[in-house]
Design brief:
This protein has two domains: about 140 residues, Alpha-Beta Complex (Aspartate Aminotransferase, domain 1); about 250 residues, 3-Layer(aba) Sandwich (Aspartate Aminotransferase, domain 2), CATH 3.40.640.10. Helix content is about 40%, strand content about 15%. It has 14 helices and 17 strands. The protein has a seven-stranded mixed sheet with strand order 4-10-9-8-7-5-6, sandwiched between helices. The termini are far apart. It binds ligand 7TS. The site of ligand 7TS has 18 residues, from α4.
Length: about 425
C-alpha cells in the first residue's frame, strides 16, 4: 500500500491569491506578521462578495421575489458552510454574529443573566483575551456570582491543579477559555476543561477566534457548549462571526438583541420568539459579509487545515530558534509542540511600540501592546510585548527579515 505524504502548503503560490502583497511599504515588500489581529483576504473571497453584490443582493428572509430568494440562498448557504467547517450537528445551532466578541457577549448576557447568582462561580483563565474575560467579570458582578481565573505557569500553560481550589469556592456554573491564546500562542486543554466543567454541572464556552483560522475545529469533539469565531481572522471579511451553541441551551435562552426577524408574533401585550437560529439574529444581518465568510471557509478547506497547521508550526519553530538566538531577546510562551504560530517577545528594555516602529521602516508589520490581555501581561510582569503572528501566506524569508529588523532595532535603540 502506498503511504500518502501529508500535503505541504505552498505559501509562495498562495500569496498570489492575496492582492495586498502587491503593495510595498516604505519601499520594501510588505511582511505582514500580524495575522492574529486580522488576516489578509484572498481574491476568492473578494470576488465572492463582489459577485454577490453585483448579481444577487437584496435583504434576506423577507422578500418573495427572485432576487430576495437568491440573497437568502447565499446567506443560508454560508451558514451551511460554516456549520460544516466546525462540524456542528445542525445548521440551526450556528448563529451569525458580528464577531467572536459579540458571540461571547450573547452567551454572557442571554445565558449568564438568567442562570447565575450568589453562590455560583464563573471561571475564566488568566490567558483570556478581554473579550472572553470582561463580559464574564461583568455578568458575575451583576448577578452576585464569584469570578475566578485559572492561573498559568512560567511556560504560559494553564495550571489545572488550581481547579480543585476553584471548585471549592461555590457552584461552578460556567467555564470560559480560549482554545489558543492570542498573546502566547498556547494551545489550551479546552477539551479537558469542558469535561471538568460538565462534571461540575457547568457550561463550557470556548473562544476559538485564534483556533478556527489555523487548525481543524470540531465542536463536537471539543465537548463545549458554545464556541465563538470571527470571520476576519480566517481570510474572510470583518463585521461577521459565528456562535455555535447546543440546541437545548439556545432553545431555553432568552434572546440577546430584540427587533425585526427574531420574533414569531408581536402583540400589544406580548411577543414570542422565532425559531433557531433567527431568534438570535435581530435586524438586517451582515449579508454580503456572511457570503464572504462562506467563501473564506471554502478557501481554507481547499488549502487544508492540516497543511496550514503544519506550515505555521514550521514557521513558529524557526522563528523561536532565530529570535531566541538574539542576545537580549526574551520570547514568552510554551514550546513549539503546544503552540500555534504566534511569538510574543521583548527586546531588552526597548518599548514594543519602538520595536514595531523601527520594523515598520523595513516594511514589517507586527503588533505591539498588551494585545487585549492585560491580566496575562500582569502575570508576565510586563506592560506590553512585541508580537509576530503567522498564517498560510507567511514565508520563512519574512522571519529572516524580522530577525534582521530586530538586530537593527538593537543598533538604533539599544
Ligand atoms: N478572542 C481571541 C483569542 C482573540 O485573539 C480575539 C481578537 C478576540 C477573541 C476578539 O475577536 P473579535 O473579532 O471579536 O475582535 N484578537 C486580536 C488580537 O490579538 N489583536 O487584535 C485582535
Amino acid at each position: 500500500m502506498a503511504v500518502e505524504a501529508r500535503p505541504k502548503l505552498d505559501a509562495h503560490r498562495l500569496r498570489a491569491d492575496f492582492p495586498i502583497f502587491e503593495r510595498e511599504v516604505n519601499g520594501k515588500p510588505l511582511a505582514y506578521l500580524d495575522s492574529a489581529a486580522s488576516s489578509q483576504k484572498p481574491r476568492q473571497v473578494l470576488d465572492a462578495m463582489r459577485t454577490f453584490y453585483e448579481t444577487s443582493y437584496a435583504n434576506v428572509h423577507r422578500g418573495v421575489y427572485r432576487l430576495a430568494e437568491d440573497a437568502t440562498a447565499g446567506y443560508e448557504g454560508a451558514r451551511a458552510k460554516v456549520a460544516a467547517f466546525v462540524n456542528a450537528p445542525s445548521e440551526r445551532e450556528v448563529i451569525f454574529t458580528r464577531s467572536a466578541t459579540e458571540g461571547i457577549n450573547l452567551v454572557a448576557y442571554a445565558w449568564g443573566l438568567d442562570n447565575l447568582g450568589p453562590g455560583d462561580v464563573v471561571v475564566v483563565t488568566e490567558l483570556e483575551h478581554h473579550s472572553n474575560f470582561v463580559p464574564w467579570q461583568y455578568v458575575a458582578k451583576r448577578t452576585g456570582a464569584e469570578f475566578r481565573a485559572i492561573p498559568f505557569d512560567d511556560a504560559g500553560e494553564l495550571v489545572l491543579d488550581a481547579l480543585d481550589e476553584i471548585a471549592s469556592a461555590g457552584n461552578v456554573k460556567v467555564v470560559a477559555n480560549n482554545l489558543i491564546s492570542n498573546s502566547l500562542g498556547t494551545v489550551n486543554p479546552s477539551e479537558r476543561l469542558a469535561a471538568w466543567a460538565h462534571e461540575q454541572g457547568a457550561i463550557m464556552v470556548v473562544d476559538a477566534a485564534q483556533a478556527a483560522p489555523h487548525r481543524a475545529l470540531d465542536v463536537q469533539a471539543l465537548g463545549a457548549d458554545f464556541v465563538a469565531i470571527s470571520s476576519h481572522k480566517m481570510c474572510g471579511p470583518s463585521g461577521v462571526g459565528a456562535l455555535w451553541g447546543r440546541r437545548e441551551l439556545l432553545e431555553a435562552m432568552s434572546p440577546f438583541n430584540l427587533g425585526g426577524e427574531m420574533i414569531r408574533s408581536v402583540k400589544l401585550d406580548r411577543t414570542s420568539w422565532n425559531e433557531l437560529p433567527y431568534k438570535f439574529e435581530a435586524g438586517t444581518p451582515a449579508i454580503a459579509e456572511a457570503v464572504g465568510f462562506g467563501a473564506a471557509v471554502d478557501y481554507l478547506t481547499d488549502v487544508g487545515l492540516d497543511a496550514i497547521e503544519q506550515h505555521e508550526h514550521e514557521l513558529l519553530a524557526y522563528a523561536l530558534e532565530q529570535l531566541g538566538g538574539i542576545e537580549g531577546v526574551i520570547c514568552y510562551g510554551p514550546p513549539p509542540e503546544r503552540r500555534a504560530g504566534i511569538v510574543s517577545f521583548n527586546v531588552g528594555a526597548i518599548h514594543p511600540h519602538d520595536v514595531a516602529q523601527v520594523l515598520d521602516w523595513e516594511g514589517i508589520a507586527i503588533r505591539a501592546g498588551h494585545h487585549c490581555t492585560q491580566p496575562l501581561m500582569t502575570r508576565l510582569g510586563v506592560a506590553a510585548t512585541s508580537r509576530a503572528s503567522f498564517y498560510l501566506y507567511t514565508l520563512p524569508d519574512e522571519i529572516d527579515r524580522l530577525v534582521a529588523g530586530v538586530e537593527r532595532v538593537k543598533k538604533v535603540l539599544g
